[in-house]
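Following the same procedure, the fold was encoded as tokens, giving this record:
***
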Amino acid sequence: MQQSPDPYSQYPQKQWQQPPTQQWNPQHPPQHYPQHQWYIQPPKEPKRKWYQRLFAWCRRHPIATAVIIIVFLLIGVIGSITSPQTSTDTPTVQATQAAQGVTAIAQDNQTLTPTQKPTIAPTQKPVPTVSAAELEATYKASTTDTTIATLDKDGNADQGKDVHFTCTILNFVKDSNGNTAGANVDDPNTSGVVQTAFPANTDLSRLNTGDILEVWGTDGGTASGQNAFGATIQEVVVSANYMTDKTTNYQANG
């Protein structure tokens, strides 16, 4: 079989020669040709949650974190002190109290009573203090001047009146207990006899028969009695409130 001619035989052929091996020369280091470098973008860090960011911030700022914690603690303590205490009663106790409250309200609505207005007491004016001497002077000035004869003649007509007269002691008279309580008196210048009842606590030793008495007292009208002879007589009796023995200058006040 005949072989076909080589189409490339017309071109001169070159033999392949191996490139010479470069030997190491310390004075001429091998040249490095720049190589094209590719930039690889690092992966993005995943977004952290809020509490992770807060924890990281606290680690970076420990002092500020401590201050914030203390402030919140103080706010909590102050709030617990100022806030009203919550009821710790059990539901049963609360229900009982609620029922009692409703019952009390119902009772109040059933037994409402009108509010009484306070009674205002009238203001009492202070009573002026009057001395015994002033009372004596006032009483003596209110009496009516009279005589033994007029008193004896008027009988009961002047009963209850405050009178003033001068007389002489005739004799002393006793009460039902046998105690000297007065005297029969007259007026030497006129007729008539009147009985005078002495004021309480009168010192009888300072009085004598025949002494002249000045009497301020109340006319008690007539009274019946027995004289020394046993006869029944009626005399006007004057109860002396103030009496002066002009003979001994002794004064007796009721």
The first helix runs from residue 50 to 60. The longest strand covers residues 212-226. The chain has five helices and seven strands. The two ends are 198 Å apart (CA to CA).
